[in-house]
């Protein structure tokens, strides 16, 4: 499966450029959406947006913790480290399972499908598929690294959903209070929502 996705010996330059962009920069949608949803939006939707950000944050922290534990328990070499396929993107020869990029984007996509809108979640899922494809195409991940990332994302969103009723409102209250203190000036100027 890896060799059917990985770039051949002479891939087209435009495809390498597209894959490199997806592999390096498409993940930036995650922090941009988190910041945007917290700082701006219609007043009647702001609380719901901030709940989404907080729950997604819990899921992301849990996902990255699980990914780290899996990497320690099941070390797995990257394709280029074992001499398989073509590597077209520089990367350290550390463990590949599960993909950190995949873990972040798929956790985020599943969170949006679960707690926001299915449509927005599916757009993020498409971004996740592009990131997954690009990192396999460029030779720095195996397809199963991405499947592992999807499963970690699902488990992490389930965990966030389970723990939210126990301390979610207190966490949101704390984050909102901290935000209003640190962003008092931009809030007073109307640059961001209070």
TrEMBL record:
InterPro entries: PAP2/HPO, PAP2/HPO_sf, UPP_Pase. Residues 56-161 form the Phosphatidic acid phosphatase type 2/haloperoxidase domain. One of its GO terms (molecular function) is undecaprenyl-diphosphatase activity. SUPFAM superfamilies: Acid phosphatase/Vanadium-dependent haloperoxidase (SSF48317). Its EC number is 3.6.1.27. The keyword Transmembrane applies. It catalyses: di-trans,octa-cis-undecaprenyl diphosphate + H2O = di-trans,octa-cis-undecaprenyl phosphate + phosphate + H(+). GO terms for cellular component: plasma membrane. Pfam families: PAP2 (PF01569). Keywords: Membrane, Transmembrane, Transmembrane helix. The chain crosses the membrane at residues 12-40, 52-75, 122-140, 146-167. It is an enzyme of class 3 (hydrolase). This is undecaprenyl-diphosphate phosphatase.
């Amino acid at each position: 499966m890896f060799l059917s996705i990985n770039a051949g010996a002479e891939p087209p330059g435009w495809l390498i450029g597209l894959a490199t962009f997806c592999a390096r920069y498409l993940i930036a949608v995650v922090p941009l959406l988190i910041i945007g949803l917290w700082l701006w939006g219609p007043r009647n939707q702001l609380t719901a947006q901030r709940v989404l950000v907080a729950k997604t944050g819990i899921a992301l922290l849990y996902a990255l913790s699980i990914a780290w534990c899996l990497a320690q328990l099941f070390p797995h070499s990257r394709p280029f480290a074992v001499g398989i396929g073509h590597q077209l993107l520089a990367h350290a020869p550390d463990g590949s399972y599960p993909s950190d990029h995949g873990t972040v984007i798929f956790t985020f996509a599943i969170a949006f499908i679960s707690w926001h809108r299915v449509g927005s979640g599916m757009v993020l899922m498409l971004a996740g598929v592009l990131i997954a494809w690009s990192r396999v195409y460029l030779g720095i991940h195996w397809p199963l690294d991405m499947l592992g990332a999807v499963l970690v994302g699902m488990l992490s969103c389930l965990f966030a959903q389970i723990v939210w009723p126990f301390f979610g409102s207190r966490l949101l209250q704390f984050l909102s209070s901290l935000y209003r203190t640190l962003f008092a000036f931009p809030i007073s100027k109307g640059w961001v929502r209070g």
